[in-house]
Write a structure and sequence with these properties.
Radius of gyration: 28 Å
Strand content: 5-15%
CATH architecture of the largest domain: 3-Layer(aba) Sandwich
CATH topology of the largest domain: Rossmann fold
Number of domains: 2
Helix content: 25-40%
Number of strands: 13
CATH class of the largest domain: Alpha Beta
Shape: elongated
Structural class: alpha/beta
């Protein structure tokens, strides 16, 4: 989706002239006018011109529709995908994580929500027990392990940074490092004391069974033992698929394994009055009177349901409210936070990534959206360049680097796995590895031919300037020059903060750096350019004024406020 941050001004003779000029320039350059008229698309709207602007309109979306399987990436547009950095911040807020990857073990929205969920469920235990006994059955409750009885946040985030590693998980399991999931020790022990048979049912394997039981005992659970705790077979030695589990294919799904194990438990004379898990796949497939879903936005383990079984109520939410700064984590609850694995899958779909971390360079929803965005914006930008040149206004466009002119997806995802590493980024920069952002070489070329000077303005530093200019030239940009390419100072040697930038604190914000650099570009000492358009993939590239027009490019892979 193209995000517009300018509003149409009333039509005037000069606007009609510029609209006609946009059409003329478009025809001369072989462009296609798409969508709004040239006059509407060109006008900056009130307050968005030099020296200021209505920056409050330059803000991320807060409402999202996202299917859990990632398919929404084909339809919602880049701005309609929850930004993964904002999602991480929201999750951190929810778990009381100050940014270290370690959850607060005393107080957090998650702990509060768990206490509320468990309190409500504990109040129902007596009636559940009586109902089962009334039917002459042995009442039982089944509990999953990870994030149902044992809490994995510190491993998932502090250690793995949301990138699961089976080998590292086994280290945590064998070392019995996991704390108890909040409120669950008292709940499990109370159920056992009331007379419920307690069973554990986990996707952890048989080689991890002893350590898992040790960890459960260590944090205070009393009912679990080798007879009532089910782990998954490894296929090695005596650890083989049990006869009571038959699967559609050679590899059993989570639902097949868990539902058929519950069926086996009930075949032993138990009535599973309650089944508790943090994943929908823990709960699907039946063989339990009730299911209790615990919140967990830190990973998503989907599974097909049993053949012929439909349980639409056991499905993730698809509509979310999320503030970009992560503050929503304090109030929306765990199910109201976009699950990070679903966010990743949606991003993969959007970029045509088959799961390798490499974007499709030929066709994808992202490429098509970029093409459409440029087609809509370019006629008006070209007209502004053309008219500005004719009127001797020294027109220019300003272009950010990363994901505005150079495309970083493969670095961000295949190499860094959504966890930015400055040292590794510098390797990519110095090696000039980045392809061009789709359609942007064309945009820069047409703007230049129409009379605009091309100005680069990036958060990359002075030590990366030469390599960045080399990369831009390598992928087809012709308008950038060292004189009109602004990189950030390092504070070392001659690379110092320029006199035209003054900041509120010792460390300048992105907006201070970029908006004051644009002001400099428009000043006499900077060339007295008229910035007719400012392009960026981050809102902080655009806020602060000093541009007639701002164009936000889509980028859900990181957020730089």
């Amino acid at each position: 989706m193209t995000t517009r941050f300018d509003s149409p001004a009333p039509r005037t003779p000069i606007r009609r002239t510029l609209g006609a000029t946009a059409a003329t320039v478009a025809l001369a350059l072989g462009l296609t006018l798409v969508g709004a008229s040239g006059a509407q698309a060109w006008d900056p709207g009130p307050g968005s011109g030099h020296g200021g602007g209505h920056s409050q309109t330059l803000a991320p979306r807060t409402q999202f529709t996202m299917a859990p399987d990632g398919s929404s990436g084909a339809t919602v547009g880049g701005e309609g995908i929850p930004n993964i950095d904002s999602d991480k911040k929201t999750i951190a807020t929810y778990y009381g994580d100050p940014g270290t990857g370690i959850a607060n073990k005393t107080a957090s929205p998650y702990i509060t929500e768990m206490a509320s969920i468990v309190s409500r469920e504990a109040a129902k235990l007596s009636s559940l027990y009586r109902d089962a006994k009334r039917h002459g059955e042995k009442p039982a409750i089944v509990f999953d392990a990870d994030d149902t009885t044992l809490w994995t946040y510190d491993m998932e985030v502090g250690d793995m940074h949301f990138n699961f590693s089976p080998a590292e998980q086994d280290v945590w399991v064998q070392d019995q490092r996991f704390p108890a999931t909040p409120s669950m020790v008292a709940f499990v022990n109370k159920a056992a004391a009331m007379g419920f048979a307690v069973f554990g049912l986990t996707g952890r394997n048989d080689d991890q069974k002893a350590a898992t039981l040790g960890n459960l005992s260590k944090v205070g659970y009393t009912p679990f033992n080798t007879q009532n705790f089910f782990t998954k077979w490894t296929g090695v030695g005596a650890s083989q698929q049990p006869s009571y589990i038959t699967c559609v294919t050679a590899k059993c799904t989570t639902v097949e394994y868990k539902a058929l194990t519950r069926k086996h438990i009930e075949s032993l004379g138990y009535d599973i009055a309650l089944n508790v898990g943090d994943q929908w796949s823990d709960l699907q497939g039946g063989y339990a009177d009730r299911a209790l879903k615990l919140p967990n936005p830190t990973y998503y383990l989907p599974s097909a349901n049993l053949p012929g079984v439909s349980q639409p109520w056991l499905a993730p939410r698809t509509h979310f409210t999320m503030a970009a700064d992560g503050s929503s984590g304090a109030k929306v609850g765990g199910e109201g936070i976009p699950n990070i694995d679903s966010v990743k899958s949606t991003i993969y779909t959007y970029y045509g990534d088959p799961g390798t971390g490499i974007a499709n360079k030929t066709d994808s929803p992202y490429i098509r959206e970029m093409r459409s965005l440029v087609q809509r914006q370019l006629p008006a930008v070209a007209a502004a360049c053309f008219v500005g040149k004719k009127l001797h206004k020294n027109p220019a466009i300003v272009l950010d680097a990363d994901d505005t002119t150079l495309w970083t997806y493969d670095m961000e995802v295949a190499d860094m796995h959504f966890n930015f590493n400055p040292a590794e980024q510098d390797v990519w920069v110095q090696d000039q590895r980045f392809p061009a952002t789709p359609s942007m070489v064309t945009l820069a070329s047409v703007a230049q031919k129409s009379g605009c000077t091309i100005v680069g303005l990036t958060g990359r530093n002075d030590d990366q300037k030469a390599a960045t200019l080399g990369n831009l030239a390598k992928v087809g940009y012709t308008g950038f020059t060292a004189a009109n390419y602004y990189t950030k100072w390092t504070g070392v040697g001659t690379s110092q903060q320029p006199s035209y930038i003054t900041c509120a604190t010792a460390k300048c914000t992105t907006i201070e750096y970029k908006s004051q650099t644009r002001a400099h570009v428009e000043s006499a000492s900077g060339g007295r350019y008229d910035i007719v358009a400012n392009f960026g993939d981050q809102f902080s590239d655009l806020i602060g004024g000093h541009a007639d027009r701002t164009i936000k490019l889509p980028n859900p892979t990181y957020y730089l406020p």
